[in-house]
Specification:
single chain; mainly alpha
Length: 158
Amino acid sequence: MRPLQRITLAVATGLGLGYMPVASGTFGTLVGVPLALALAVWYQAWWWQVAVALVMTLLAVPVCEAAERHFGKKDDGRIVADEWMLFPLCTIGLPLLEHWMVLLPLCFVVSRACDVIKPPPARQLQVLPGGTGIVIDDFIASLYALAINHLLWWLVLA
């Protein structure tokens, strides 16, 4: 296997967490937690967070597509780049720096719940082929999670 393929697989499997025998998506999402915190440190303006989250989303598509070709199975459970690369989307605009001990676990749980439930149209869109189908359902679920996280922050926690 060529070095670029190895790197792509490492990214796609969340540095190997996608190989967990159970809940690989949940374990894979853990890679996105420090990423979300780092983005909050480096890009404190919400619009920068949006820009970086969109770039991460677009990068996830070819990574997931390459991994799907490698594994030879539609949306193989070992592919978790869609979970961890899109996790920062769930935290945009939240005061992570000041309240990370509360917000990161909350965002993690809400994100995982939305990914499992896949509210419409997330579930319907995952039938799209290749990396687009792998990523689009997580993108939609992450938008739901972002809205829920903001509601919880402003109505309960703030």
